[in-house]
Amino acid sequence: TALSSHHLSSLQPLCSGCPVSIFFIVINEFCERFSYYGMRAVLVLYFTYFLRWDDNLATAIYHTFVALCYLTPILGAIIADSWLGKFKTIISLSIVYAIGQAVLSVGSINDLTDHNRDGSPDNVSVHIALSMVGLILIALGTGGIKPCVSAFGGDQFEEDQEEQRSTFFSFFYMSINAGSLLSTIVTPNLRATECGIHTKQRCYPLAFGVPAVLMAVALIVFILGSKMYKKDKPQGNIMLEVSKCIGFAIKNRFRHRSKQFPKREHWLDWASEKYDKRLIAQTKMVLKVLFLYIPLPMFWALFDQQGSRWTLQATAMDGDFVVLNFFSSYVRLQQIVNPILIVIMVPVVDSVIYPLIAKCKINFTPLKKMTVGMFLASMAFVAAALVQVQIDKTYPVFPAAGQTQIRLVNLGVVPATVQFQNQSQSMELAPKETTGYMTFKTSQLQSLSIDSGSHNKTEFLGNLLKGKRYTLAFKSLDKIYSNWLLDNITAKPEEGQNLIRFINNFLVPVNVSMDYKNYVVLPPLSVSNYSIYPGEKRSYIIKSTIDYISCTTLSKKFGFGSAYTISVDSCPAYSLNVTYYEDVAPSTVHMAWQIPQYFLLTCGEVVFSVTGLEFSYSQAPSNMKSVLQAGWLLTVAVGNIIVLIVAGASQLSKQWAEYVLFAALLLVVCIIFAVMASFYTYVDPNEIEAQFEEEKKEDKKCQDNHEKQAEAVSQM
Fold this sequence. Notes:
Strand content: 5-15%
GO molecular function: symporter activity
CATH topology of the largest domain: Growth Hormone, Chain: A
Largest sheet: 4 strands, mixed
Subcellular location: Apical cell membrane; Cell membrane; Membrane
GO biological process, one term: protein transport
Keywords: Cell membrane, Glycoprotein, Membrane, Peptide transport, Protein transport, Symport, Transmembrane, Transmembrane helix, Transport
Distance between the termini: 47 Å
Membrane topology: Multi-pass membrane protein
Oligomer: single chain
């Protein structure tokens, strides 16, 4: 004979009054959250810098993926409650999840299609296909197990173990935050390393591979505890019951729409012919809360842009941050700020802010808290817009269609005068001086003349191309030597990297290298190709060999997102003299300026998200909490879909304008929500359910009396 679930649970090994099985569940959750958030931390960078999608497409696919992750929990809940049960659902979908992570990792291997070994995939569509298949499987896995794991952990306790259950949930949510925080530190740094068989690239296979391994570990750990778990059989899904009840009420109301049928107090009362009053009353309570959910997706539309727009914003900033030097890669600040602030702000808000508000005798209801949370998120995007305006000021201006940019560099030791034909004003250039880039209409360029020392030279400009940048480097010795350099930079360097090239200011060939890499031999006045150096404020050793004499010097600190042309000028006493010409200015807006927007958004999250879940649970019947959980997750999914719609429809060319648009939309929604909340009446579901229990007892009592009377009559 099979043992009952209660008997099985009583035989479970205990540790500090808790079933040992829950430790397997907590470890499983830590590994799963590490896997998910670690992968997500580098996902938009993978889209942008590996798959070479533009910012808008990368943002769109990122939010589509996140939306899918929050739509699939409904599917997972239905499978668990109606078919497989929680344990088998977690096992099955975890396997799907781990396969998805592995497929994504394989899809990010550059050498998979790099047959010509030039450092870029020959067939990007293969990588895109594998990545999309992997992400779909991940979305099915993570979303499908999301509603099951915490509930399965709660199932391990008896009804009289409320304190132990509460301790479990504290550990459970701590494991979520720990996994999230650790992964957002580790995986971006794994990505920052270089790996590859033929050419070294950002190591996305490792950044995605480690989360895949952690997901496999999560699955193994969960299976190891199998014999200790209390496994309840599927009881049927209440979401399906609620959906059927609503559907029947609508259908029945439509059938009886003519005036001859009397109106009922509530449209759900039309389901009373088929469903009992208790289910109808519970559904009414749930729908009241779900109605309040309608404006909530707008909050998540802003909140989840931390992983897309704000991540890309950070790549255009100065990342010289003390704490980041420890983590070795500068884009990490914005990925660890939110988890750290959450850990700090939750106890501060609960223990300090709310009690202070209560002492001021302000009735700070849950719905008022959520309204404040939405307002704070709106202000966070205003802060992001202000930061973006400052970033935009640092971007270089490139030639538009029909324009050409020219920069003049006097490499000589005597002053020079330059005059463009059809321009009355001439330009004076001191030794080693540059003009910076000047913009001309290409069609109007004819020639320019250079006077330096006792020499003169005319340069014809008719061959310069539209939409290009050029540098004219010249020097006067026995005559004027000059060379036109095509500056083939069309945008600010990616990910805060620096582009460095050298120009030979000798009249003999020189050998140049930086940090003993990228050796190049340069003929007189010629320039090397740009080499990529990581974004960081450090010096490099520049070495040059001229006529068998080696000279060295330490470079300047380049910063983040810059491009320089370095002129190799002279070598007195084995010390190399160089001059720096700025092709693209480094990023000057410090990443610390993102902290205010993260602080505002995190405060908004604390008073919105935590309060929202608490409010939902307090206003829902005990057997309908899964319905509201699904509804809450659905608002996150819809929020990410809103990002796709707004970003696609707005067609705004400036990123700061898009931030302002989102801030304005949330502010409007915040006002609407405040009005809706003012009409809401708080209820006590337990009280209402108790009334139904009393009515049920009364009905049973009456039925028993009738049966006794009928029995008495039959005996007469």
